[in-house]
């Protein structure tokens, strides 16, 4: 045993100079970056990732490299959390007793000299994060081992690739473990140690397949073939060790593991190394491959490759660290000097409020020094909302879009009651136009909401460097500004509601821009005449032509009747006996002085008795619709549409003008007044008032909350 120990020490001593200059630098960087979250934790440092299927012998290889039993062992899944193992070669000094010790990242300063307790701590930390029933976690465990018998290197023991979930493992355990492994081995700074057992088909090794996926060229993959001593008799792994089956640039190393029986019998690592040496020395095939076999050769190869890899990536790593350092230094410089006195804190607070107000005002007014050339920002976005979204949307709305001819015809007939309409009734026009005006309320409120969102975005985007130093103050300032803007929305909503209600409450048919009834009838006549041009000469088009002729005749009569109503309407006799004279329109005339009421009841009854039989009327249905459309009704519908379109345009122009003005007055400009008040109180504090923090809290922040 002593001879084997000296054998190991000689190998280590012969290689202590290898990587002694650069690997410790990476180890120190690992110590620095490990407890840090954020950008620094994303820097990829050179390391060796150990990949293999479950029970492939990964843990045995790591323990052989360390020379200690410290990893959880068993026939089931053992590695359930990534273990970052940092091996630090500690040269022997006169005052050093040479004892090996371990230290966990989560227990800084606590050294473990008993490696049995190291195993227990690994199991306890694994159960804490992944549970005690074979669960798996991505959270890493950090372990440093300092020994004069190891070479400098950093390895990450990853969970073994498993196929069938057991215990608390999810059904997609294989996919999760593969994803975890790929997150490590895809990094260009990572050396892949692909472990494959010799007693399985090496050509289909999971470790080699994943290594090939992450490293197609094989330039950073080392193959390790374990359990060479238990291969079938008459077979060997010579072709794999020589790279003839699955070529790898960094080659292969074959090792002999301790069996589970050796572990149960507490067979020492020194005895295992001696057995491995004798096996390769006495084997007729492997004795000629001494540079590719054995744990000492694997340790030396890993150390050399890692050292070469570090030297290769060190310039780029150094450049990246300097870049991150400069970025952090600039960020730190933005935070300014440390403030000690109360007066300095108060002055800083006032300066922050001043710069915030100036930045917000400049962003709204377009006076910002950081004007973008790529997109609209600040007040320009508000103008875009008014002109390109709100105004254009209202112009594209057709007030008659949701009204069919039957709807208008039904409304007209309901407005006339039991009598026939002499003119186009005003009631259906007013009812329909109010309904269309009410539709304008939603787009107006949406426009208000868009402007509110833009003001909130501007308040969050105010680039005040000093606010980055005080995130709590930034949150409070955003909350206060947001509350003030929300409070400004309410009066703007009330104003917009009032504008729409005003338009609905009084239909001003005397508006000079309104087409009016006479003009609407003339336009309707012109449209009917123009429609006749498209009539054809065939049978179907001839029928349409006849309908057009009737429309023209009826329209002319309707226009003549409308323009000369007072002349056509004649009253005969005194006020108690009036005669309606409409011979052309209604097809007949009642003689003056004659009425059905003047006939005697006996005469009427006599006429009824002469009827041959009683005529029964069909009861009207519960829901009635208009009868077949007449020519006069067609003209009335067309006139009503023209009136609706004309008055809607009048209201639309009013809304397009007044709604943006209301939003600017109650929302945008009101917030600018709020900013001015902050400036006013700030100047008062600078001029002569007691600038204490209590005074700021008394005047400024209540103002912010108003």
Search tags:
elongated; disordered C terminus; single chain; alpha/beta; 7% strand; 55% helix; nine-stranded mixed beta sheet; 706 residues; 23 helices
| Rounded mean pLDDT score | 76
* Helical run tally: 23
Biggest sheet, in brief? 9 strands, mixed
Please provide the count of β strands.
Answer: 9
Helical content stands at 40-55%
Secondary-structure class: alpha/beta
Coarse morphology = elongated
Low-pLDDT parts are 1-19, 536-545, 557-597, 682-706
> Strand order of the main beta sheet, please?
4-3-5-2-6-1-7-8-9
CA distance, first residue to last residue? 84 Å
Q: How big a fraction of the residues is strand?
A: 5-15%
Report the C-alpha radius of gyration, rounded: 47 Å
Description:
- The model is unreliable at 1-19, 536-545, 557-597 and 682-706 (pLDDT under 50).
- 29% of the residues are buried.
- It is elongated, with a radius of gyration of 47 Å.
- Helix 14 runs antiparallel to helix 16, helix 15 (441-461) runs antiparallel to helix 16 (471-505) and helix 22 (631-687) runs antiparallel to helix 23.
- Strand 3 (101-104) and strand 4 (111-112) form a beta hairpin.
- The two termini are 84 Å apart.
- The chain is built from 23 helices and nine strands.
- With 706 residues, it is α/β, with parallel strands linked by helices.
- A nine-stranded mixed sheet has the order 4-3-5-2-6-1-7-8-9, sandwiched between helices.
- The protein has helices at 2-15, 23-33, 58-66, 115-130, 173-185, 206-214, 238-241, 260-264, 269-282, 295-334, 342-365, 379-395, 405-416, 426-438, 441-461, 471-505, 517-532, 539-563, 565-568, 583-586, 601-609, 631-687, 693-705; strands at residues 47-52, 83-89, 101-104, 111-112, 141-147, 153-157, 190-197, 221-226, 252-254.
